[in-house]
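Project channel, design review

CF: Before we commit to the Chloracidobacterium thermophilum constructs, I'd like one complete example in the thread so the newer folks can see what an input/output pair looks like. Taking Transposase IS200-like domain-containing protein.
RD: sounds good, go ahead.
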Amino acid sequence: MPDVVHRFKTMTTKRYADGVRANQWPPFPGRLWQRNYYEHIIRDDQSWQRIREYILTNPLRWHLDRERDIGADPLDVIGDGT
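CF: and here is what came back for Transposase IS200-like domain-containing protein:
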């Protein structure tokens, strides 16, 4: 699985860099991806429900992040992929 994640991070970083050059996307200060990532093996329904809830509600907590760009819309930060 680490190879899959590494490949995904490499491809998306390249695509974003291409978008910065070709489509005037805003450059990303620092690194686009965190150096490490957290993984969790889902072993039971309770674990699955907790992770599912985190994924669903995490964007709702975006405005609480002190490091975000104040005034930015989370969808503008993500972009539409074009």
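RD: helpful, thanks. The longest helix spans residues 2-23.
CF: DSSP finds three helices and no strands in the chain.
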